[in-house]
Amino acid sequence: MIILNKYKVSDAKKFKRFMFLSILLISIITITSITTIKAYSKDIPQYDYVRVQHGDTLWSIAKDYAGSKDIRQVVYEISELNKIHNNLIHIGDIIKIPLN
């Protein structure tokens, strides 16, 4: 081994044990870091807040945020999130809109 000859390691057995434990420790730290990053990078809910204006309906607000999703599903999500029953909203209400 080049390292053993270059640095004059006196005990090859201890050196090999040290290298094995070092590589094992680095591997464990790397795997733990990757797993932690994956756990925290999951979809974190993001919201937008809308103040209800004159003429707004829950459906018109949902239509603006639906994109390619089914508007009925978006209306349902907004209703559940804001505890809105009978699709009744009032001017000045602030509505939380899910963006994910």
Brief sketch in words of this structure:
This protein has helices at 2-7, 12-40, 58-66, 71-82; strands at 47-51, 94-98.
CATH classification class of the largest domain: Alpha Beta
* Helix/sheet category: mainly alpha
**How many separate domains?**
2
Tally the helices: what do you get? Answer: 4
Within the largest sheet, what's the order of strands?
1-2
Radius of gyration: 29 Å
Please summarize the sheet with the most strands: 2 strands, antiparallel
Topology as H/E string? HHEHHE
Given the C-alpha coordinates, what overall shape results?
rod-shaped
**What name goes with the CATH superfamily of the largest domain?**
LysM domain
Going by CATH, the architecture of the largest domain would be Roll
Tally the beta strands: 2
Q: How confident is the prediction overall: mean pLDDT?
A: 86
Strand-residue proportion: 5-15%
CATH fold type of the largest domain: Membrane-bound Lytic Murein Transglycosylase D, Chain A
Residue windows where pLDDT falls under 50 for at least 5 positions: none
Helix content: 55-70%
Separation of the first and last Cα atoms: 55 Å
